[in-house]
Specification:
By secondary structure, the protein is an alpha/beta fold. It contains 13 helices and 16 strands. The radius of gyration is 23 Å and the shape is elongated.
Length: about 450
C-alpha cells in the first residue's frame, strides 16, 4: 500500500495521500497534546542538568547520570532498560589561562580544546601570527616557527568552520608553531569561548591548542593590523589519563507484532566540561525519551519496537556510537528508522530526512500530522553522529530534529549552555513532533522505503 503511494512521485504530493494515514491521526494528536500540556520535558531537563551538571564521558557526573537515567526509565515503565559498557578516553583539562602581555597586559577568555596537550609548567610566551585560513597559514609559514598561530576564521557554519578547531594545530605544528589559538566556532557572544576536540595525528608533533572568545581574537587582529606586535602567554595543562568505563543507556517499548524491527531514537548523555550540556545534548536526550514515556502514559504499544539510546562519548571520540554499531550491526537491516536530536530545539526548528526518494515521500506524508506544530515540511539533513554508524550499516532512513543553528551555536560548547537558555514550549514542541513521528513509523503497516 505504501509502496504504491511512494511510487507516485510524478504527482503533486497532496494527491499521493492515501487512507493508510487516517487511523494514526487521532493517536498522533493525543501524543502531541500530551507533550504540550505541561512543562514536564523542561523539568526533566532541569533535573538532569542541575543534579548532574557537566558530564564528560569519563566523569563521575556522567556515571551518576547513567544511574539516574536507568532508574527513571524504569519508573516511566520502559522495558529492557539496561546499560552497555563503553570504554572512553579520559582527558583532564587542568588549569589553563591566556593573556596578552604586550601591548598592555590583558586576560584572554579561553578554553583549551578537548584533547590538547599541555604547555610547559610556566606556559608558552610568544608573538602571535594571525592567519585567516589554511591557505593564509601556508603563505605565512616563514613567520610561524616558535610563534603562536591565531586562526581568525569568521564563523559561517559549524561544519565549515570547525575544521580549523580540529585540524589547525596539526598543520601549524608542521610549520614549527609553538601553539595554536582558534577563534571560537560560533557567532559572537558575550566573551564566551567555545571548546571542542582538537585532533592530532600519531607520530606528528603535538602543540597546545585553545579556543579564544571572538572579542579577544578581534582585539589581537586590530592590534596586528595597526602594526603592533602582540605577545601572548598561554598556559594549558590538559592531559590524557588512559581510558575509563562509561555506558550507553537503553530502554524500549517492545513491539506487539514485530518486536525485531526497531525504530531507534536518542541523543547523547555526555557533554563537555563547561556549562551543563543542556542544549548539547540534554535536550536531545529528553525530547526523544518523551516519545517512549508518552506512549507508555497513553497505553500505546506500536507494532515495532521503539528503542531509546542515550549515547556516551559523542563529544570526544564517538565511542558510544561505534559500540552500538558494532553490537547491533548484524541487525542493522531491521532498523526501520533512526532518529537523532543533537542540534538543539531552538525555534524556528525544522525536520531533516536522509534516505531514498520513496522514503522521503512517505515521511512527507507522515509529517502532515505535524501541521499544528508548523513542522510539516521535511528538508534535507537527516541523521546525526550517533546514529550514523547503524544507519550506514543498514542503509537506514534517518531523521533529525534541527533547532535554529544561529541560536544553538551561540552557546554550543560554552559555559552558557544551561537550561535557562531553553524555553519550555520549544522543548515540548520538539517532544510532540518526535513522539508523533516515532509512533507512526513504529506502527505503520509497511516499513519506510529504503
Amino acid at each position: 500500500m505504501l509502496a504504491a503511494c511512494a511510487g507516485a512521485g510524478a504527482l503533486p504530493l497532496a494527491q499521493t495521500f492515501g487512507s493508510w494515514l487516517d487511523p494514526y491521526r487521532g493517536t498522533a494528536q493525543k501524543l502531541i497534546a500530551a507533550a504540550q500540556e505541561n512543562d514536564f520535558a523542561w523539568q526533566r531537563l532541569a533535573e538532569l542538568t542541575d543534579t548532574y551538571g557537566a558530564r564528560p564521558a569519563w566523569s563521575e557526573n556522567l556515571t551518576r547520570a547513567v544511574v539516574w537515567a536507568v532508574d527513571t526509565m524504569k519508573a516511566d515503565g520502559l522495558e529492557n532498560v539496561h546499560t552497555e559498557r563503553v570504554m572512553v578516553p579520559r582527558w583532564v583539562r587542568g588549569a589553563e589561562s591566556a593573556e596578552i602581555v604586550d601591548p598592555p597586559r590583558h586576560p584572554i577568555a579561553m578554553l583549551g580544546l578537548g584533547g590538547t596537550v599541555a604547555t610547559p609548567p610556566g606556559g608558552i610566551e610568544s608573538e602571535v601570527v594571525v592567519v585567516s585560513n589554511f591557505e593564509d597559514l601556508r603563505a605565512k609559514r616563514a613567520q610561524v616557527p616558535g610563534r603562536i598561530v591565531l586562526f581568525d576564521v569568521a564563523y559561517t557554519t559549524y561544519a565549515e568552520t570547525m575544521s580549523y578547531r580540529t585540524g589547525g594545530a596539526r598543520l601549524a605544528a608542521e610549520y614549527g608553531a609553538a601553539a595554536v589559538l582558534v577563534r571560537s566556532v560560533g557567532p559572537i557572544g558575550l566573551r564566551t569561548p567555545h571548546t571542542g576536540s582538537v585532533n592530532y595525528m600519531p607520530g606528528q608533533p603535538q602543540i597546545p591548542a585553545a579556543a579564544v572568545a571572538a572579542e579577544d581574537a578581534n582585539r589581537i587582529v586590530r592590534l596586528t593590523n595597526a602594526g603592533r606586535r602582540v605577545r601572548v602567554r598561554l598556559v594549558t595543562s590538559g592531559r590524557m589519563e588512559g581510558e575509563a568505563a562509561s555506558s550507553n543507556v537503553i530502554g524500549e517499548i517492545v513491539g506487539r507484532e514485530r518486536p525485531d524491527e526497531v525504530v531507534l531514537v536518542g541523543g547523547h548523555l555526555d557533554s563537555w566540561d563547561v556549562g551543563t550540556g543542556a542544549s548539547d545534548d540534554g535536550a536531545g536526550c529528553v525530547v526523544t525519551w518523551e516519545a517512549l514515556r508518552l506512549m507508555k502514559k497513553l497505553g500505546i504499544r506500536p507494532r515495532r519496537t521503539v528503542r531509546l539510546v542515550l549515547w556516551t562519548n559523542e563529544e570526544h571520540g564517538m565511542n558510544g556510537a561505534a559500540a552500538y554499531g558494532l553490537k547491533y550491526g548484524h541487525a542493522a537491516a531491521n532498523h526501520v528508522l533512526a532518529i537523532e536530536s543533537d542540534s538543539g530545539v531552538f525555534a524556528p526548528a525544522s525536520l531533516g530526512f536522509s534516505g531514498s526518494v520513496a522514503g522521503r515521500m512517505v515521511m512527507a506524508q507522515i509529517a502532515t500530522l505535524l501541521a499544528p506544530l508548523g513542522l510539516q515540511d521535511i528538508g534535507a539533513g537527516g541523521g546525526g553522529p550517533d546514529i550514523d554508524p547503524i544507519a550506514q550499516a543498514g542503509n537506514v532512513p534517518a531523521l533529525a530534529y534541527l533547532g535554529d543553528a544561529s541560536r544553538l551555536f551561540l552557546i554550543h560548547h560554552t559555559a552558557a549552555d544551561t537550561v535557562e537558555r531553553i524555553a519550555p514550549e520549544e522543548l515540548s514542541k520538539a517532544a510532540a513532533a518526535l513522539a508523533a513521528i516515532t509512533y507512526v513509523a513504529a506502527d505503520m503497516p509497511d516499513r519506510i522505503p529504503r
